[in-house]
Amino acid sequence: MFIAPFKYIPQAGMLSPSETNVQQPKRKPEQQRIVDLNAAGDYRAAGTEGLALMAIEKQDEDLQLIVANSLAWTGRTKEAVPTYQGLVNGKYANEANVGLANLQRWNGRDDLAAPIYRTVLATSPTNSDALEGLELATRELSPRTTLSVGASSDSSDVQNRSNMINHRWRDKSGSTIMEIETSAVKNWLPNIETRQQDLTVRYESLALDLKPSMELSMPTGSNRTLYGSVRVKLVEDAVSLSAGRLNWGRMTTNPNALALGLAASHLGATAAHGFTFGTLRGRFDYYDITDNNRIISTSVHLASSWRPLGNNYRPFVGVQTRTAQFTSPNYWSPEMGSGTLYAGLLGEWGSADWNFYTSVQAGARLYGDAGKSWAIAGGGKRWLSDDLALSMTFWAMESVRDSAAYKAQSATLSLEKLWR
Question: Of 26, 258, 301, 380, which is most buried by a Cβ count within 10 Å?
């Protein structure tokens, strides 16, 4: 399931700063429609129709800010950026700069967002939007230690328990991210139990052209095999390519696969593109496993821009496939293939100190080892203080595997401590 990172979506009826003025200019009907759409919370329509108006003739700054905010709040960042940039030298310079900083933060560039917030605060020290944005960016840039515990099980009697300690920090620029992590898992069936602990290091450079990232991990027990992967991003981060050697036994959470020490060579690609009707994402993964099996999995997912239930709810639809060279009892490997069509709804809510999401979906068989399915997922984070947060995630699903009903569920609880 594709769960997007949390992004703040304003409530219906929330006005842009320009619309709080007591006196409003007299507008043409088509301009007033943009104002009314924004006030009603229909930001998708306000952004689309506003861009069309701006393509015909230059609009006043009040209307431009409404259009820029509507585009940003509905995830149309590429179109929002030039609209905000057209306002940075006018009377709404602070609002435009805050909007640009928010877009950087939502795109994972808190290191670029923080200086923009500080620029706004230098001329407007009480600007509440800049103060909140800077606090959120500072949180993300701060060193942190995370403790996590998790559990999962399925209808084949596989049980899994895991725990993890992770420390993440950045260099002075904030554009280089480094992590060190140790984790342990315990997997068991009625007749077998396996355990493994490993040490992992990660590195990512956001400032370089391809934004390269790498991961190296090694079990700390007797089987000290080195695993690693690299990833690069292309086409303005819309496409990512990855390759590496993965700990397949650990990935599958199956004690037999872990006991056999299975590894897999991996090639992967992801791509995303935004349209007026939504954001389309695709993924391809190829695994060459050391038991001579080969698995190919693909997915195509459309997050719709249509909001029939309000701005907090996003419909989605997609297709998932998986094919194996042969069926193995140690992990899901459908030799005849498996194809599922699914549709569902994602809901997101939050503020500066908390966020929560939940997702429900239903699926239908397209071909092979697949059948009717359903899945639910959820999670959230609550900041207990300025430097301490508690988060949790959960999911459950039911589908068909090996021509039989299959169920699985999982939950994770994490405690996060910032070091400022």
Answer: 258
Q: Which own/partner contact pairs does 400-403 have at CB distance under 8 Å and 24+ positions apart?
A: 400/365, 400/369, 400/370, 400/371, 400/372, 400/373, 401/332, 401/334, 401/338, 401/369, 402/327, 402/334, 402/369, 403/369
Domain of residue 354: give its range: 144-418
Burial class (CB in 10 A: 0-12, 13-18, 19+), 18: buried
Q: What is the Cα 188 distance to its own chain's centre?
A: 30
Q: What is the dihedral of CA 79, 80, 81, 82, to 10 degrees?
A: 70
List phi, psi (to 5°) of 379. 175, 175
- Amino acid letter, 299: S
130 with 179, same domain?
no
Q: Give the residue among 352, 410, 402, 411 at the shortest CA–CA distance from 382.
A: 352
Contacts of 213 (CB under 8 A, 6+ apart): 202, 203, 204, 205, 230, 231, 232
Q: Is residue 7 part of a domain?
A: no
Q: What is the pTM of this model?
A: 0.88
Q: Within this chain, do residues 168 and 303 fall inside the same structural domain, yes or no? A: yes
In a domain, 151, yes or no: yes
Q: Residue 20: is its pLDDT beyond 70?
A: no
pLDDT digits (tens, 9 = 90+) for 258-302: 999 999 999 999 999 988 788 999 999 999 999 999 999 999 999
**Closest to 334 measured CA to CA, from 356, 363, 312, 365:** 365
Provide the pLDDT for residue 4: 40
- pLDDT tens for each residue of 114-147: 999 999 999 999 999 999 999 999 999 999 999 9
Kindly indicate the confidence band of residue 14, based on its pLDDT and cuts at 50, 70 and 90. Answer: very low
Tell me which DSSP letter residue 85 carries: H
